[in-house]
Design a protein that fits this description.
about 230 residues, mainly alpha, Four Helix Bundle (Hemerythrin (Met), subunit A), 6 helices, elongated
Amino acid sequence: MKYASPAVLVLGLLSAAVAFGQTPSGAPSAPVSYSSMTELNQLISNLQQASQGAQDNLSHLRIEKWKTDSATKRQTEADSQSILRNLQNALPTMLTDLKNSPENLALTFKVYRNLDALYDVMTSLTESTGAFGAKEEYQALSNDLGNIESSRRAFAERMDKLANAKESEIAQLRVDLQTARAAAPPKKVVVDDTEPEAKKPVHKKSTTKPKPKSNSQDTTSSSQSQQQPQH
């Protein structure tokens, strides 16, 4: 029993991710230069032409007439359908996202990764066509494979340009930040090192409470007044 190759699995996962809307999202992109936009439009146009040509040639394959075993036919047919689904559904969505954010490095890499998986699966399919299919089928797919490979290299080069540009922007931002810090006037810090005058201690005035009069005097006076003789 044959199992799907890793490239076919990657291709299927990429197609499924786009089908469920799992595309990178980010903030609105910065203004793009005319030269960068022109380059991207040319890359996309070439890739769309390569995709259309591959779809036409894949749809004309007559795998059922190949002189090989049924297992090989089923596997080749499955690879062909996987490529067609990717070219018809996943790839156009990726290119639309990239048009909306032309210099997004993550989206550019996603297109490149998809082309890389397409190239691997198409290589296997083209080899099988050369071994079991008609000469015309093999020649057509060989041309399609070359076009996909050219697009893959072109997107790899653009991805490298974008990465270098981002690094240059970051380096320039660091230089600007250091320059701004150097130009800023230093903050003045005033240090008051004079010792404060010592406060004189405040003494509380002592107040003496008057002693209460003794009750003995009142008793003596009372007894004397009682002892005076009567006339």
